[in-house]
Structure formats: C-alpha cells, structure tokens
Amino acid sequence: MKLNLPRYTYSEVGRIANNFLKQYYPSLEIPIPIEDILDLKLGFNIFPFPRLFKDFGLNGFLSSDMSTIYVDEVQYDQYNEKYRYTLAHEIGHYVLHKSVYENLPYKSVEEFVYWRLHVPREEIGWFETHGNWFAGHLLVPTSRLEEVCRDIVLKYQDTFSEFDSIPDDIWSYISNEAAAYFDVNPPVVEAQIKKESIIQKIPIRGKD
C-alpha cells in the first residue's frame, strides 16, 4: 500500500511547525505545553494504552478519525519527556498527513499495526521521519534554542575560552543542560542543535 506522501524537506516541516506554534502558542514560552495545546485548544483526547509498546512496539498512535492520541501507559505515567515527544510526533502526523488518515478505516491497534507492516519501507520511513522532524521543531523552537544555548555558553565562557571552538562532546553537555529548559530528552536538543547549525551561530565569547 503506497501512501503517496508529500516529500516535505526538513526546512518545510520546520516552517509548518512554526506556523502551528504561531497559531496555537505564539508566546513560545518554554517548555512548550504540548498536552494543554492538544487538549484545550485542539480538543484531542489523550488515552493511556496499557502495554502498547510491550505488545505492539508502539510509543503512540493517532486514531483514524484523528480525535484521539493513544500513548503507551508506562510512558504516560513514568517518562514525561518521552510522553511529550510522542504527543508532538503524533500531532505532526495530524498536521502533515491528514490526507493519509482520511483513507485509513482501522478500528483497533491490531489493524493499525497490520497497516504499517504493509506500507513500503521507504514510505513508512518518510512518514515517521516527518513526525520526528515536526516534534523536534515543535518542542524545541529554534529561536528559543539559540537563546538558551547562548546563555549556557555565556555561563561557562571562562571554561570555553581555552578552545578555538567548542568540541562536540562539550555540546553534548550543553544539550543535557538545555534539555531541562525544554522538558525533552537530551538527544532531541542535540539533534536540533546540529540541524539548526546552532554551533556556527554562537561564537566562544572572550576570544580575540
């Protein structure tokens, strides 16, 4: 089964995510309150699904009528950062892939899994990549990421001043600290730092 997905680029997904934030959360105060946006502004039901990951290998999925986001119950109860990312990923499907869901009459998680298994690998790869890109942009807006990273670099400028450029492993530490501001897992921030060229935008202060 082919999905006939639009092949959005990373930048195109970023523009769509930014427009979503402008419409539903223009203040961009962090952390982005993704659960409130989905519940209070878009009217989604969020349903913790027992054993969703253990039995089906899914963190979450969007109902075919696009009214409910099902999330693994353990993730919902115990792993807040991952839970937030799953919500952002699934709303990415809602925003980017409405035409796909309009033609999917599945009624159960078993039917959803069956459908995914019969989509060509390249197509499902694009489908999930779009969701990941959207989630990264939504939860870690580039403008706020640059501000947070600048503040962290400034805080440690005496340490960084010995470098001509900040090494990659140090950026991993910066990602760990920045992740707390955005309420996401550090790899999400680290990926956005690289994709948005934050490293090139922030010089080491104090260098001649």
Biggest sheet strand order reads: 1-3-2
What share of residues are in beta strands? 5-15%
Q: Give me the number of helical elements.
A: 13
CATH topology of the largest domain: Arc Repressor Mutant, subunit A
CATH class of the largest domain: Mainly Alpha
* Helix percent band: 55-70%
The residue ranges in which pLDDT falls below 50 over 5 or more consecutive positions are none
Q: What is the correct CATH architecture of the largest domain?
A: Orthogonal Bundle
Number of domains: 2
What gap, in angstroms, lies between the N and C termini? 59 Å
Q: What average pLDDT do the residues reach?
A: 92
Would you give an account of this structure?
This protein has 208 residues and is mainly alpha-helical. The chain folds into 2 domains: 10-139, Arc Repressor Mutant, subunit A, CATH 1.10.10; 142-201, no CATH class. It is built from 13 helices and 3 strands. It has helices at residues 10-24, 34-41, 52-56, 73-78, 80-96, 98-101, 109-117, 121-139, 142-155, 157-160, 168-182, 186-195, 198-201; strands at 45-49, 60-62, 68-72. The protein has a 3-stranded mixed sheet. A hairpin with a 5-residue loop joins strand 2 (60-62) and strand 3. Helix 1 crosses helix 8 (121-139). The longest helix has 19 residues, at 121-139. The mean pLDDT is 92.
